[in-house]
Amino acid sequence: MPNESKRTLLRDARGAVYVEFLVAFLPTFTFFVAMLQLGLLYATHLFVEHAATVSARAAALSLADVPAMGMTVRLGMAETQKVRAAALLTLAPVVMDGSLNRVDVTVSDALGGGLAASFRPMTYDHVDMLRARVQVDARCKIPIGGRIVCGFAGGSGLGIRPSMTIAAESVFPISAARALPAAGCEVASNGSGGGSGTGGKGGKGGKP
């Protein structure tokens, strides 16, 4: 009897379809959640790249409002806050859905001179460049897929809250800085003496 029961159990094929389903489903499901997490990280990277471009442009335009100190201008605290606000507004979709843990925005010269870098006013033959860097700590919030993608891609995939650091930089010319004429160029002053057909005090035709 025991031998017959053993042979019957070995010949029993019930549940084979369920086992085959698990063998095929688990790798497919793991691949799907990993690709979903990878797609979310790629979308976040696009947001960060655009935020870096917007931050660089905001920093360049903010220099137009900074009083010139001699021959250079620098970003102050107020202007730096404007640049950070521009980056946060660009990242608003991924900030509001909880995809980011931290956002860091830094502005320097084109060589990475830091916040203390000074920029010369624009001339006809010279334009200073500034560099904006946006770095975020993106959450890998897809179960299973987040740990797989962030773990193999260099993120903190083994932590309680897996995440990955994403950074982007953008260089922008300081076109809004004050323009200085090149050597040998003359700048006409508005409101000066009479021109063609205009009297010193009168309007057109030299009327007094």
Shape annotation: rod-shaped
Structural class: alpha+beta
Approximately how much beta-strand content do the residues carry? 15-25%
Stretches where pLDDT falls below 50 for ≥5 residues? 176-181, 187-208
Q: Biggest sheet, in brief?
A: 3 strands, antiparallel
User: How many strand segments?
Assistant: 3
If you compute it from the alpha carbons, what radius of gyration comes out, rounded to the nearest whole angstrom?
32 Å
Mean pLDDT across the residues is 75
Biggest sheet: strands side by side, in what order?
1-2-3
Through-space gap between termini: 132 Å
Which percent range fits the helix content?
A: 40-55%
> What letter string, H or E per element, gives the SSE order?
HHHHEEHE
What can you tell me about this protein's structure?
The protein is an alpha+beta fold. About 40% of the residues lie in helices and about 15% in strands. The chain has one domain. The chain has a 3-stranded antiparallel beta sheet, with helices on one face. The C terminus is likely disordered.
Give the secondary structure arrangement, pairings included:
Layout: H1 2-11, H2 16-62, H3 77-90, H4 92-96, E1 100-109, E2 129-139, H5 145-152, E3 163-173
Antiparallel strand pairs: 1-2, 2-3
Helix pairs in contact: 2-3, 2-5
Features:
208 residues; alpha+beta; rod-shaped; disordered C terminus
Short summary of the structure?
Helices cover 40% and strands 15% of the residues.
